[in-house]
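Morning!

As promised:
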Amino acid sequence: GQNIDQPTEMTATEGAIVQINCTYQTSGFNGLFWYQQHAGEAPTFLSYNVLDGLEEKGRFSSFLSRSKGYSYLLLKELQMKDSASYLCAVRRRANSNSGYALNFGKGTSLLVTP
Amino acid sequence: EAQVTQNPRYLITVTGKKLTVTCSQNMNHEYMSWYRQDPGLGLRQIYYSMNVEVTDKGDVPEGYKVSRKEKRNFPLILESPSPNQTSLYFCASSPGQGGETQYFGPGTRLLVL
């Protein structure tokens, strides 16, 4: 089966750096995504890693280690508007005749305080 | 404007009364998917489709049906809704067949009495 773990809640201070970890166990791994979801809204795409290493996009960076089944999302220069839920999602090849299924973690609720 | 639309946005229904939630995207995307989101359980994939007439089950397909007769539309059908299908439903689409960079619809909040 598939298992994706991420912390339930985190709190950080405006202007600081926070790292949200995600560990996964899955067969047919084919990429890891991070999404942001503000309360009452739909998720929005943040980043995508399919190879090992760090992907940087402005204040947000995402890292992947496939051998360790581990990823993290790094948020720098935190702003109040970064308070949201952050969802880790793993894409996997479901079977040889099908496409790609996605499994999401339960999300990490980040609270940014003044 | 590029978007994914869902209708209805809110629905209250009774057990056993068939319903359809529509999903449409105007971005010519290949991949479309349905999710439900429940407190403490996160987003769970119900069904996905990598192209017209190609659909497959996600993690929680029981009690749901889908069809993909046209590229832009991917309706979710509940033939006989039950209270445990009360949830927030999201439709999403992405450009390739692999589900990258998914664009989510605004969500449909369903209550089954």
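Chain A has no helices and eleven strands.

Hope this helps with the figure draft.
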